[in-house]
């Protein structure tokens, strides 16, 4: 995060906001700047990618599902707008520790003992490490002592849209993001890779709420996508994972998505519409017979 902070200082804060006499490495100044960056960055990522997803990927026929709430999209957005600033406070403190040099983030590939090989491995390591911790944190948030206080607000959305992706109780949202911040304090990671992965996980979080249940056949047993996560919202005790199905299989909480079996929310909407169409067709046919009968009688 120090790369983002340095760029913000160079192009914006130093020339336009703070006096030149206030050192850029002052801890209070860094904290204020990081709080601003975390909030603006969080809103920018959320609105940009969730809006793109909503208009170009999300299947709007899901909004006809009986469990889709009235004014749900507006409610998801307003809830997120309210909670993101609170979520950003503890996040900023972890970014501050990174900027102050307490993490194992590096500037140069040459600083890694095994160079580019280690850098590539670190990407997969990051994904598997965070997936493991998020699984157990997420599952823990479903415990009866925590669920009502923390995680229930996110489960209001039974059939979520991309805008539900960040609509969490602030502490819930921070706890589920914590593994991303723990990793660079435990394992070496390149700073640019870290920023890239941070953006990627935000996009992924949006994508698993987008109602696009298509997954390449060979990835279906491995990837925890939107079909899996929508079932988590609908059926509660299944598919806690973030990226992969591995920990759900190990923890006994894996459920083959209902959408893969032709029983998902889209299938339900289609069935509803077919029944409605048949009902209208039946009523029209009945009315036609009645009119024909009356016509014959008149003749």
UniProtKB/TrEMBL annotation:
Domain of life: Eukaryota
Compartment list: Membrane
Pfam family, one: FA_hydroxylase
Composition-biased stretches (Basic and acidic residues): 289-299
KW Phosphoprotein (keyword) present: no
Chain intervals for the UniProt region annotation (Disordered): 276-299
GO biological process terms, semicolon-separated: lipid biosynthetic process
Species in which this protein is naturally found: Erinaceus europaeus (Western European hedgehog)
Gene Ontology molecular functions: iron ion binding; oxidoreductase activity
Residues that span the membrane, as ranges: 31-56, 77-96, 116-137
Boundaries of every Fatty acid hydroxylase domain copy: 125-252
Gene name per UniProt: SC5D
Keyword Ribonucleoprotein: no
Stored InterPro entries: Fatty_acid_hydroxylase, Sterol_Desaturase_Related
Protein name: Lathosterol oxidase
CC per GO annotation: membrane
UniProt keyword list: Membrane, Transmembrane, Transmembrane helix
């Amino acid at each position: 995060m120090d790369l983002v902070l340095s760029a913000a200082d160079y192009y914006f804060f130093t020339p336009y906001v703070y006096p030149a006499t206030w050192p850029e490495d002052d801890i209070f100044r860094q904290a204020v700047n990081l709080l601003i960056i975390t909030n603006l960055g969080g809103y920018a990522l959320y609105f940009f990618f969730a809006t793109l997803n909503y208009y170009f990927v999300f299947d709007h026929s899901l909004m006809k599902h009986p469990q889709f709430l009235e004014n749900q999209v507006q409610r998801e957005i307003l809830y997120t707008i309210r909670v993101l600033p609170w979520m950003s406070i503890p996040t900023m403190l972890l970014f501050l520790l990174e900027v102050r040099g307490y993490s194992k983030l590096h500037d140069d590939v040459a600083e890694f003992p095994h160079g580019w090989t280690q850098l590539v491995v670190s990407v997969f390591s990051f994904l598997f490490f965070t997936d493991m911790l998020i699984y157990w944190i997420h599952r823990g948030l479903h415990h009866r002592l925590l669920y009502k206080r923390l995680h229930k607000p996110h489960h209001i959305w039974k059939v979520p849209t991309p805008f539900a992706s960040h609509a969490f109780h602030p502490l819930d949202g921070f706890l589920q993001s914590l593994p991303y911040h723990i990793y660079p304090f435990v394992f070496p990671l390149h700073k640019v890779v870290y920023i890239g992965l941070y953006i990627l996980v935000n996009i992924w979080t949006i994508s698993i709420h987008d109602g696009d249940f298509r997954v390449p056949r060979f990835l279906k047993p491995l990837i925890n996508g939107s079909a899996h996560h929508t079932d988590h919202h609908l059926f509660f005790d299944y598919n806690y994972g973030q990226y992969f199905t591995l920990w759900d299989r190990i923890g006994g909480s894996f459920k083959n998505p209902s959408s893969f079996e032709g029983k998902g929310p889209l299938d339900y909407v289609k069935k509803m519409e077919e029944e409605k169409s048949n009902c209208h067709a039946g009523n029209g046919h009945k009315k036609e017979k009645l009119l024909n009968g009356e016509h014959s009688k008149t003749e």
